[in-house]
């Protein structure tokens, strides 16, 4: 007997805190461990041992006695593997038998451990066993019968909970493909992995591999056989073995459907109810007609019936059997949908509708999301013809379903994949593999076909190099740029961007610095800070598919011209193909932005007292305080019950502190700042390059920022803050958590938004942290990102004055942004809203629940796909929570309240402020127990120069939206 082991397995998961999981990983050490595991005959394991029911371990020759319940025999973990688990929550080679079920489900870490198990299985399939390269042959390390028995027990425990079932439907179905429980295997993944490895070993097979990955069909068997025969003289014995295995797997994958076997699985379910009868009826009919056009819609129906009614089965074993059946039916659907080749427009629309419904049945789309889009995907209701406008609406909806499906996969697995990719780049292929093994693959192909058809008949056509699937590219806001194309595959964090380059991201970083142009696979939402800044500055911005990104990667590093028209069409062309007109746009230094001078002559720097927000209104903006505080004070007057109390530290207090002597400088902070800009101007006069000047400025601003962070706050100011805190918030500092929001004179202007450029500190409780936070906020306008964005658009970026808005935290259940107009869809009378769960929703690029709200209706533009969110505990700081997508964020009462507040803002705000501004507003708000809270309002700024550009208007296609197209029109 050696030691207690089960308790240790539980500790592996539960002693790991979120902060520990998130800490920087020792990448070099982990990579060294991986290489060591690969070369070790025992891999990541130590030795074979007995694991007894009472939690003890015994040597291999000392079995567990029957009187303590017996046990199982398998390998124990090496010390290095144990360290990876305990210190970094990394699990490369889990042996399931004897693993604690709760620890393996790992709910406190967003199911990280079970996802890592799936990812490790994938890596093993594409990298010759991965960490078990040699230990695959370590006899006795893993007992398959014990693994399967554990898998059955695990799912019988897991599937007891209705809530767990509803909230994790997609994840549950996916894990069934990887966790042994019924002699099963993931044949589709094996087929893709084997073709990938074969193409890497024998590069001439690459085209065939692309066919198997992108458009699998039963003809692949003949294709592989013919390829092998053609190249047989060049094939080594090892490659021949790989061909043998691939042909065997293809034959297994394309085995004719055995409906009797499927019926026997239904018969094995312990109860008979409407669900089992419905499936039996389907199987009986399906056996008579196996044509793809008949079978695919019927399977889609059954998949959705299973999802909706599986909880009517009370036994976990029955639920497990039904989910396994669901996966098998999905596999059949994936085979058959490739055989379904529509010939007319109506058939194509029906196929798209069917596959969208199937996406719901497989968990890629939530049930509430399908209810929201179903009315817009009714191909059966179409008669003889449809207008271009109606078809474009169908296309936009269907394209959304494809994107939501892919984002479901990313939401579930991206964090784990990103972590592994830091030390194992092959991990990036996992998400693509999951998407390709789903209905999203053929749905995406069908939607691209529809897009190409509509483009052909309407004149809306993209010209993006020579890539395939161009109908998947769509413009988000107009503009044009010329520069080097940079394609970023994987995580963008840590990427240093250049203002003169054009970037293609899977998802843009939330702290993106100025760039010439952007394209994104995951646009996040229409009203994130990055999207608003791009719209404001006329930076061309478009969305594209993952396949588009991969196709563009071959042009990364090349100079290109990039334009997004006012109608959303997109052009990317190489340097040699640019027209004289397009060259002229840049030879004249004409850009889709214009410089704005922020007036500073009216700033009242003599006001050195903290201000009660109730005493402010919009007229104080740019004089005493920034627009956040002034406008929120105005809203407090208009909506006293929807706006919190607040304190404001005005410009004058900041300037008073900046007039103090600066550490390690002979003058004041303010003199240092002004001298830095004076020197920059002198450098410019002396002929220094813009790069040299910028480098100098950023170095000086960094020095200033560090000095402000170390500044001593005046005792009189601190004492006043304590007194005012008590008076306004009815508690002393240190007892009420607050937000500290930077509020400069150079943001939220009618011509420039500045959204998210400066610092906001969340839920600060401790007095010392509040005082330190004040200095951090004062320093934030001098960060590289903030300065560069201001410099891009403002003629006097050095004249920045920060005030600070201090408001008590509201622990909202969900929060977001409202724009009082339709963006990209809808009219100026509509609303565009984006909400995420928790605090700070939608502003940092989260995949938010985005809606178009009209006077009488609401339309879901995209669902929430943010995997986590934060709440604001009364003890200060933030608490990370894990999101599920089975319920919508906003309810009908919330929508009603949003409409009412928007109407009031539109009518009352200009009247009360005496403003002639007639544009839209950008409003931040949240809900706590269904009560609406207002946190910020600013003008919604769009780049008028970009919108009115003669060139952009010229490349915008002239579309006749009323043009009718017959539904009998041939697709090809």
TrEMBL record:
Pathway in which the depicted protein is active: Carbohydrate biosynthesis; gluconeogenesis
Keyword set, alphabetical order: ATP-binding, Kinase, Magnesium, Metal-binding, Nucleotide-binding, Pyruvate, Signal, Transferase
Cofactor: Mg(2+)
Domain Pyruvate phosphate dikinase AMP/ATP-binding: 623-951
Keyword Cell membrane included in the entry's annotation: no
Annotated EC: 2.7.9.2
GO molecular function, one term: metal ion binding
Keyword Nucleotide-binding attached: yes
Recorded superkingdom: Bacteria
Annotated SUPFAM superfamilies: Glutathione synthetase ATP-binding domain-like
Signal sequence interval, chain numbering: 1-22
Catalytic activity: pyruvate + ATP + H2O = phosphoenolpyruvate + AMP + phosphate + 2 H(+)
Main enzyme class: transferase
Coiled coil stretches, renumbered: none
Family, per entry: Belongs to the PEP-utilizing enzyme family.
Its job: Catalyzes the phosphorylation of pyruvate to phosphoenolpyruvate.
Protein name per its UniProtKB record: Phosphoenolpyruvate synthase
């Amino acid at each position: 007997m050696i030691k207690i082991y089960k308790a240790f397995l539980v500790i592996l998961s539960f002693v790991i805190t979120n902060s520990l999981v998130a800490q920087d990983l020792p990448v070099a050490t982990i990579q060294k461990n991986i290489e060591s595991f690969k070369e070790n005959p025992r891999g990541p394991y130590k030795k074979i041992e007995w694991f007894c029911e009472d939690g003890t371990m015994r040597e291999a020759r000392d079995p567990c006695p029957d009187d303590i319940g017996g046990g199982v025999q398998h390998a124990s973990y090496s010390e290095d593997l144990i360290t990876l688990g305990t210190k970094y929550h990394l699990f490369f080679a889990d042996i399931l038998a004897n693993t604690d079920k709760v620890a393996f489900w790992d709910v406190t870490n967003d199911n990280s451990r079970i996802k890592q198990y799936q990812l490790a299985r994938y890596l093993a399939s594409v990298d010759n066993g991965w960490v078990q390269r040699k230990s695959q042959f370590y006899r006795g390390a893993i007992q398959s019968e014990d693994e399967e028995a554990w898998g059955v027990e695990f799912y019988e425990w897991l599937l007891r909970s209705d809530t767990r079932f509803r909230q994790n439907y997609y994840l549950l179905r996916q894990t069934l493909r990887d966790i042994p429980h019924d002699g099963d295997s993931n044949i589709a993944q094996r087929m893709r992995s084997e073709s990938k490895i074969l193409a890497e070993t024998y590069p001439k097979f690459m085209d065939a591999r692309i066919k198997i990955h992108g458009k699998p069909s039963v003809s692949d068997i003949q294709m592989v056989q013919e390829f092998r025969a053609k190249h047989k003289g060049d094939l080594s014995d090892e490659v021949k073995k790989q061909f043998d295995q691939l042909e065997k797997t293809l034959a297994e994958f394309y085995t004719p459907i055995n409906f009797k076997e499927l019926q026997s699985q239904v018969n094995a379910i312990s109860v008979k109810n409407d669900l089992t009868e419905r499936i039996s009826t389907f199987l009986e009919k399906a056996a008579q007609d196996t044509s793809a056009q008949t079978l695919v819609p019927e399977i889609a129906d059954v998949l959705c019936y299973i999802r909706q009614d599986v909880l009517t089965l009370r036994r976990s074993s029955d639920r497990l059997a039904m989910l396994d059946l669901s996966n098998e039916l999905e596999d059949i659907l994936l085979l058959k949908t490739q055989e379904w080749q529509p010939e007319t427009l109506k058939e194509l629309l029906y196929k798209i509708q069917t596959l969208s419904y199937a996406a719901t049945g497989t968990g890629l789309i939530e049930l509430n999301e399908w209810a929201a889009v179903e009315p817009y995907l009714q191909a059966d209701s179409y008669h003889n013809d449809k207008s271009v406008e109606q078809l474009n609406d169908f296309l936009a909806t269907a394209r959304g379903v494809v994107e939501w499906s892919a984002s479901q996969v990313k939401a579930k697995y991206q964090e784990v994949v990103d972590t592994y990719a830091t030390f194992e780049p092959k991990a990036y292929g996992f998400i693509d593999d999951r998407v390709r093994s789903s209905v999203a693959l053929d749905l995406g192909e069908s939607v691209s076909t529809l897009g190409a058809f509509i483009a052909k008949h309407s004149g809306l056509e993209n010209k993006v190099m020579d890539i395939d699937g161009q109908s998947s590219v769509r413009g988000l806001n107009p503009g044009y740029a010329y520069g080097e194309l940079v394609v970023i595959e994987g995580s963008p964090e840590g990427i240093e961007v250049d203002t003169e380059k054009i970037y293609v991201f899977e998802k843009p970083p939330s702290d993106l610095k100025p760039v010439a142009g952007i394209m994104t696979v995951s646009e996040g939402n229409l009203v994130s800070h990055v999207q608003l800044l791009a719209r404001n500055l006329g930076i061309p911005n478009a969305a594209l598919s993952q396949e588009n990104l991969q196709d563009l990667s071959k042009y990364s590093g090349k100079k290109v011209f990039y334009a997004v028209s006012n109608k959303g069409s997109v052009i990317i062309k190489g340097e040699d193909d640019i027209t004289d007109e397009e060259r002229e746009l840049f030879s004249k230094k004409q850009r889709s932005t214009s410089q704005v001078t922020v007036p500073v002559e009216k700033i009242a720097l003599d006001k050195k007292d903290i201000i009660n927000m109730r005493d402010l209104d919009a007229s104080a903006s740019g004089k005493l305080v920034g627009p956040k505080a002034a406008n929120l004070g105005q809203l407090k007057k208009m909506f006293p019950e929807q706006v919190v109390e607040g304190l404001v530290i005005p410009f004058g207090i900041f300037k008073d502190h900046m007039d103090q002597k600066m550490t390690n400088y002979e003058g004041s902070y303010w003199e240092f700042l002004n001298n830095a800009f004076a020197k920059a101007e002198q450098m410019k006069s002396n002929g220094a390059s813009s790069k040299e000047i910028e480098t100098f400025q950023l170095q000086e601003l960094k020095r200033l920022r560090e000095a402000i962070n170390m500044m001593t706050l005046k005792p009189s100011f601190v004492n006043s803050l304590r007194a005012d805190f008590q008076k306004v918030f009815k508690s002393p500092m240190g007892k009420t958590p607050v937000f500290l929001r930077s509020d400069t004179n150079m943001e939220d202007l009618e011509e420039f938004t500045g959204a998210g450029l400066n610092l906001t500190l969340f839920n600060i409780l401790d007095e010392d942290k509040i005082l330190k936070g004040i200095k951090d906020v004062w320093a934030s306008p001098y960060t590289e990102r903030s300065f560069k964005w201001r410099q891009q658009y403002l003629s006097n970026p050095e004249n920045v004055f920060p005030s600070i808005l201090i408001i008590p935290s509201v622990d909202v259940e969900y929060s977001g942004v409202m724009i009082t107009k339709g963006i990209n869809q809808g009219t100026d009378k509509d609303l565009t809203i984006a909400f995420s769960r928790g605090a700070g929703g939608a502003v940092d690029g989260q995949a938010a629940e985005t809606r178009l709200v009209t006077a009488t209706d609401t339309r879901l533009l995209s669902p929430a796909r943010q995997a986590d969110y934060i709440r604001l505990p009364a003890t200060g700081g933030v608490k990370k929570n894990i999101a599920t997508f089975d319920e919508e964020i906003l309810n009908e009462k919330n929508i009603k309240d949003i409409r009412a507040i928007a109407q009031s803002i539109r009518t009352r705000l200009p009247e009360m402020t005496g403003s002639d501004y007639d544009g839209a507003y950008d409003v931040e708000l949240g809900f706590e127990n269904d009560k609406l809270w207002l946190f910020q309002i600013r003008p919604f700024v769009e780049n008028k120069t970009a919108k009115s550009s003669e060139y952009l208007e010229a490349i915008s296609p002239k579309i006749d939206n009323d043009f009718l197209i017959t539904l009998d029109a041939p697709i090809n």
